[in-house]
Specification:
15 strands, alpha+beta, single chain, 15 helices, ten-stranded mixed β-sheet, about 475 residues, Arc Repressor Mutant, subunit A, about 20% strand
Length: about 475
């Protein structure tokens, strides 16, 4: 019997605010333990939370980026549980009236564009972090109270690879929108995985298994690959799956049981009495809407369509926003957008990386790239000489034309001069000339190389090739 996986993901993303959700403590990473705390985020008796409006805006913005509907009225609830990293013994979250409902993410996977629907995206607070040492344990509450967006997908994912691609697309959308830096090494993105398997074509769902607190996308992919096969093996051997929560052991490459359904938490949700429901005005929503950005997949498709770029070039610009802005600021005046993209992606990006310069620190004006492309395509300089000109242009800020004139780098296209040098090269390399005449076409490249060496790369390679071939065929 053939089985299929049914996967849903609950992704937690830390929002990019300066302060925490309910107090004025800094939202920073890497500070000494328990230095970014106050009575509010430590859950002291009698303190009152005050909502961070920028976190509310970013939550709404994330909803718009995920094609969600902004709820006309949202409220906060208390999710009660007792655990060392939760200082209040309850978490302020959103239960039955979240900020964002519905929505979807379109992304590329397996060579096609897929869609995963979003059930909800709600706002809550993060918890502290436990540390376990040889003989004791400690808690750092610096993270407690940081605004956290939980994005709950529908069970539309069918493979580990599809889950991996969805998560990368989701991360890219959050970064593009300025909602989160999504730095996984800093714990800014975590994920709970829900997975079941069923016979292919069967509408009923199998027993749901949850894998908690995953913090790397590669780990999620590996955990899903293992868990899909584990569940199928249990069913094929006549066993029965039970609803449970499991954890992923990255070292062993296996999941292991934590608790079954019988031991699931009863969180006893009730409305947060210290926070009023949030009813956004149309003006407030429009202000948030003004912060919308073009989504990565749409940008890639548009660059390919408008400028006839291959997918790899378009993706390079999608992953480097400043470079994409630079390209689009000059390409509208270009005759050959693909050539412009090549110089920016292959040459400019490499030199910027080597020199640790940003786009804003470039010494040459953007139209210098167009000028260089024009010099190559009109045959005034060769592609090889252009590489040297580009480096000089990058270092000095001088125009390509000025560099070519100063250093005498103009391409030799004079047929009489090239004709004479080709005769000399053929006479000096009779074996290669005979090899070409015997059908060894590669010999022509050697002879062309000799001409280019003598002219120090200045000879027009197209004219050189035509001249040599003509002479050798006489």
């Amino acid at each position: 019997m053939e089985y299929e996986a049914v996967i849903g993901l609950e992704t937690h993303v830390q929002l990019k605010t300066k302060t925490k959700m309910w107090c004025g403590c800094g939202n920073k990473f890497g500070e000494p333990p328990n230095t970014l705390v106050c009575p509010v985020c430590l859950g002291m008796p009698g303190v009152l939370p005050v909502a961070n409006e920028e976190a509310m805006r970013q939550t709404a913005l994330a909803g718009l980026l995920l094609n969600c509907a902004i709820a006309p009225s949202a409220k906060f609830d208390r999710k009660n549980y007792f655990y060392p990293d939760m200082p209040k013994n309850y978490q302020i979250t959103q239960y039955d009236r979240p900020s964002n409902l519905g929505g979807y993410v379109d992304f590329e996977t397996g060579g096609v564009v897929a869609r995963v629907r979003i059930n909800r995206a709600h706002l809550e607070e993060d918890v502290g972090k436990n540390f376990h040492f040889e003989g004791t344990s400690g808690i750092d509450f610096n993270r407690a109270g940081v605004p956290l967006l939980e994005i709950v997908s529908e069970a539309d994912i069918r493979s580990a690879q599809m889950a991996y691609d969805y998560l990368n697309a989701l991360k890219e959308i959050m970064v593009y929108g300025g909602v989160s830096d999504c730095d996984m090494e800093k714990g800014m993105v975590r994920c709970d995985v829900n997975i079941s398997v069923r016979p292919k074509g069967e509408p009923a769902l199998g027993e749901k298994i949850e894998i908690k607190n995953m913090n790397t996308f590669s780990g999620i992919k590996r955990a899903l690959e293992y868990e899909i096969q584990r569940q199928i093996s249990v069913l094929q051997s006549g066993g029965k799956l039970v609803q449970e929560t499991r954890r992923w052991d990255d070292l062993s490459g296996e999941t292991e049981s934590m608790r079954t359904k019988e031991y699931a938490h009863d969180y006893r949700y009730f409305p947060e009495p210290d926070l009023m429901p949030f009813v956004p005005s149309e003006e407030w929503i429009e202000e948030v809407r003004s912060r919308m950005v073009e989504l990565p997949l749409h940008k890639k498709q548009r660059l390919m369509k408008e400028y006839k770029l291959p997918a790899a070039d378009a993706e390079a610009f999608v992953h480097d926003i400043p470079l994409a802005r630079y390209f689009e600021s000059i390409v509208k005046d270009a005759k050959n957008p693909k050539s412009v993209a090549n110089w920016i992606i292959n040459n400019l990006r490499a030199l910027m990386s080597e020199s640790c310069k940003t786009i804003d620190e470039l010494e040459f004006p953007p139209n210098s790239v167009l000028e260089l492309v024009d010099l190559v395509e009109t045959g005034k300089i060769s592609s090889k000489i252009a590489q040297t000109v580009f480096i000089d242009m990058f270092n000095t800020g001088k125009s390509p034309a000025a560099i070519v004139d100063e250093k005498g780098l103009a391409q030799v296209s004079d047929t009489a001069t090239i004709d004479k040098i080709c005769d000399e090269v053929i006479a000096a390399n009779p074996k290669s000339a005979n090899d070409f005449k015997s059908g060894k076409s590669a010999a022509l490249n050697f002879l062309k190389g000799q001409v280019m060496r003598i002219t120090k790369g200045k000879a027009n390679p197209a004219i050189v090739g035509e001249t040599l071939e003509k002479k050798l065929n006489e």
